[in-house]
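Write out the 3D structure for:
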Amino acid sequence: MENPFEKLEEEHRAIEQELLEIEEIANNGEINYPNFIHTFKKLREVWDKHELKEEKIFPILKKEKIIMPVKTMLLEHGELKKHKEAVTQAISSGSEPVLKQALLTHGKIIIQKLREHINKEDEVLYTMAMEELTPKEIEDIEKILDES
């Protein structure tokens, strides 16, 4: 049986690629707005699909020893959504100064917090899940990921 958490970790690597691009855009003196908008939309697409999968499997992960990491991940999803929405609203505003401010504040927070979040999932949550879940539960997670 394939480890379903490896699929989620692959998606984390795809998210990291987009974060690297956004980080490069943010650190460049002059912001390439079309490139940023394109990259952020691509990040949202990958991130949103990934988050939906995680939120479908979290109920399976709510075993006694995994409850706290799952609660932490859900709280962090909520915190990250606020920043993601702030950047999305700035893009919708059509204003370069508004977008630049959102990139330099919310964008940098997203980069930092999302990387920390991914590391916790990869190093803590997924590791604990593989140790605590039964083969049947892992198979159920695999099915959910295949359906998504």
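Residues 4-147 form a domain with the Four Helix Bundle (Hemerythrin (Met), subunit A) fold (CATH 1.20.120.520).
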